[in-house]
Amino acid sequence: MEQTVVQAIVRTIDGKRAHVEVEHGGCGRCHEKGGCGGQQLTQMFCGGPKTYHVDNLIGATIGDRVTIAIAAGSVSRSANLAYVLPLTATIAGALLGASLGGDLSAAVGAGVGLALSFLYVIVRSYSNVKNLSDRPYIISRS
Q1: Tell me, what DSSP letter sits at residue 67?
Q2: How far apart (Å, rounded) are the C-alpha atoms in residues 30 and 20?
Q3: CA dist., res. 91 & res. 74, Å (int)
Q4: Residue 97: CA atoms inside 13 Å, Cβ hemisphere, count?
Q5: What single-letter DSSP state applies at residue 26?
Q6: What pLDDT digit, counting tens, does each position of 19-61 carry?
Q7: Is the model's pTM score more than 0.90?
Q8: Fewer C-beta neighbours within 10 Å, C or N terminus of the chain?
């Protein structure tokens, strides 16, 4: 299975999970085939350090330099679920509402489409909590 890896420093430990600070934003594959371009997007909104909770399967301790891995494609799948699906559902709801009767129906349809997509995202997110293959985890100490 293909993985994307980044370097990080362990800041805190919480049971079998670690709170890490990523040294470089993203995998560095922004311009390559298969890269999601997420680093460029996040740089517009936040300039501070990037911190994440990851599975600590190797027992890393506070201050360790570690390598974090995540399955290739899981970031883009998550982005599609969180951003593209609600946008598409909102537009589809608005179009359906407009076809049934005017601006008010379009607004209601957009709201219903957005609400249904959020419910779907929430249900899907909770059903994937136990799916370790899509979660970031520490693979080694650097």
Answers
A1: E
A2: 22
A3: 25
A4: 19
A5: S
A6: 999 865 555 555 555 555 555 545 544 556 788 888 888 999 9
A7: no
A8: N
